[in-house]
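Pinned message: reference record for NMT1/THI5-like protein
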Amino acid sequence: MVSVLVIIAAAAAGYFWLSSPPAPAKEKVRVGYWTSGVSLGFGTVLEEQKFLEKEGLDVEFVRFPDLAAQIRALASGSIDVTFGSPLSAIYAADEEGVPVVLIGASQPADAVVVVPEDSPVKTLADLKGKKVGGTYPTAAVSVLLNTIADQGYGVKPEDFLIVAGNESRLVQFLAQKQVDASVLRTVTLDQVGKELKLKTIANLGDEWKKITKNDAPPYIGTVAATTDFAVRNPDAAARVIRGLIEAQKWGSANKDQVATIMEKKANLPEKDARVFASRWDSMYRTAFDPVTIKTLKLEHEAFKKVGVIKGQLNEAVFVTEPYKKATGQ
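Predicted structure (tokens):
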């Protein structure tokens, strides 16, 4: 009798084991980012520490050699979401009818205007008639500088000349005294400021807050997604946002480990890796609250004024549900 009961119990257990539903498949998401500039650091840490995988996502990272390729892939639907996507490029794509939306802001304009220590230039008001190193004139940072100089100091874009170059060229311009001032990322200033004897006359983030009377800094990089992914799958999009937020928090609390990762995985020299890690908090921030969206809208106005954007702002480009889900709002 006991043997019969054991057999029945075993059979019942087997039945329930066989009839239990399988574990749900992880949501597949294709995440793209540019493997250079500021995006490289965040992407390297995000991959190494598997923050998106910890949110239950099956992640395929797609790395791009330039920003244009990243935007093209998003526009074609080859990837689902990107971080560090240029705000102006997403606005332009939306204006052209490309089905892309914003679900977050990710990279503040962490840049300063610097001059040689012995320069007579003290504030942005002194830029009249000067040569200023910067990225190309229609780039977001240059547009921000023009807007701040105009609205905050009465210096019009035509009052000074922007000499275009990438970050290394801007440093070279300063070293060779080919420009009177330059816009540099803070991480670059930390690396070369003492050697070149530079001083800061303006922080673009702080100056932007003054002229806009808004607490959010300006952003140059965003979290963008295909409309299909963001609208039809807000839960997966929310998990992406949550993973990005956790990556930012972890990096802020573990700067030594960030430096080690950057040295080993991104092949940065130890000194540069530590400088990079020290600037983590000012370079990365995932936000999409009303204050942040307000600043993104103000940036659209600035882009439109200089002709980077032609049409009116499309409010539908801001899809807030994933961020609200991710942050429990």
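Pinned by admin. Summary line: Strands lie at 27-34, 57-64, 81-86, 100-108, 111-116, 131-134, 161-164, 181-185, 198-203, 219-226.
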